[in-house]
Structure formats: C-alpha cells, structure tokens
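=== How it folds ===
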Amino acid sequence: MRAALAITFCALLAACGTEEQAGPPQANTCTGLTQDAMVWVPGGTFTMGENPRYPEEGPPRQVTVEGFWMDAHEVTNAQFEAFVAATGYVTMAERAPPPIPGAPPEMLQPGSAVFRVPTPDNPAWWRWAVGAQWRDPAGDGAGIAGQDRRPVVQIAYQDAAAYAAWAGKALPSEEQWEYAARAGASAVPEPVDAGGKPQANYYQGVFPARDLGEDGFTGRAPVGCFAANAFGLHDMIGNVWEWTTTSGTRADAAEPVGVIKGGSFLCAANYCARYRPAARQFQERGLGTDHIGFRLIDTRRPPPED
C-alpha cells in the first residue's frame, strides 16, 4: 500500500513542505514551555470554515464543541523518542513497503517523502528519500541531534494514533482543532501582525524558489518560538501540519485519506496560504512527510477548577 501511494506522491502532495535548510540566526526567543504541558480549551460555538479561500473549506457552518484539554505545542522529537524507547514502536516510514511491480527501486525501500526545491532539469517538488523517517527527516544522515524541542515529523496517521494510545490521550477532530486555533477570535488569525512582523513560522519569499527566513527560520522551529493564541496554544498556524481524526476524500489517493490542519513552514502567501484555521488538506494516512506532525487532546481529564 505504501509503495503504491509513494509512486504517485509527487502529484499527490503538491501542497506545502520542505526539508530543513540552514537559515539566518533565529529572530525569535523560544519560550521555556514545559514539554507535555496541556491547556484547557473551553467549549463553545463557532463558524467553521469561515471566510473560505478554497472550495474545500466551505460552506461556513455553525459548530459546537465541548471543552477539552489540548497540548500547548506540537509533539516534539524528545517526546516521540521517549515513546519509542518505552514501546519499541517502528514508524510507517521505517517499515519495508510491499513489493509493487513497476515501482522504482528506491520506492521499494523504507523511506518517505521529502520536499526539494525544483530546478529547470527536475521540476518535481517531492522526492522519495530512502531512510527518511522521524530520526532523520530529510533522509540525508543529518539526523535530529540537538533538536529535541522541534516538532517530530515523518509521522503517518497510524504513528500519531499509536503515540496517542500510549500517552492516554487522543488526536483531535477537525472541529476541535479549528475551534482551538481560532481561540474565540472574531478575526481570522494571520501569520503577520499589523506592522508586518511574522507571528508564525511560514514561508516568506516566492514559493518554492527561496524562503527568506524573515520569521527566523527556514525549516521547523522549536515549539514555543511564537506567541500563543488566546487559549495558550502555540504554533496552531504554520510550523508543521497536524493530523486530525477527520476523514477526507480525494480521487487520486491510493489509500484512506485524513484531514490535516494548520499549514507548515512551507505555506506561502503566493502559493497555498493554508496557514489559516479554516484551511484543510487531504493527506494519505499511511504516508508522512517532512512537514507533518501532530498534537493531542484529552477529553477524560476533568476541567480546571474555577
């Protein structure tokens, strides 16, 4: 199944994403967030899909959600490493794909999708990187040493669900995720403030040629480098896409599809602009990339005392 979908991933993943690149000095001071910290999201009613920019975001509709706890930030490399150490879990990207006749040899080896800057000789945006997985997102041997606080990526839906079960939590639905991202704001959160200062990790410059890194990063940012929203949640727009439990549909998908939310460090104003709470994308659940991660919720934990 993974090999079949990998064969067509260049066409299927034509949204936003890239491997980490060396960038300018970090312009943001990352907070001292406590890993595993959760914040309470009070229940309420909101207009889901408000001000849609793409057909799949609408029509706007009223949705009510109950209160829940949510991770203050995306699950990090350090957190996922603790899970793997405790359970011995092997991610989808580390597993050998089944042999598929006609598949390129590299796509029959464990690996995953990694974004590349297109060139005149090779206009493809994506490549199958043998060995790409959460410990080495770009599959180039660079690894993740010193990146404990960066969001874990190359995570398929099954991987996120396994982590959630181990942690005694759950993945959010799309409704829960979007409600939390909006944080009760009447205006849609934008990645820049009124003065033009970046408020999230997204792509500045002309995508996909060059990210100027004006927000301080040209790849994943450590969690907590940008101000939290009104609910106390960091990186609800930009940085990495996040899995939800909501199913999606796409005619060219080779396996079940899920909805991811929030955009990533490769979403640019000139291309997808999916760093908005209403934005959604359909992703094969068996395939991670170097710009997809996740965060969890807890609906069983009692609400905070008044």
The radius of gyration is 18 Å. The chain has one domain: 1-22+44-306. Confidence is low (pLDDT under 50) at residues 3-27. The domain at 1-22+44-306 is CATH 3.90.1580.10 (paralog of FGE (formylglycine-generating enzyme)).
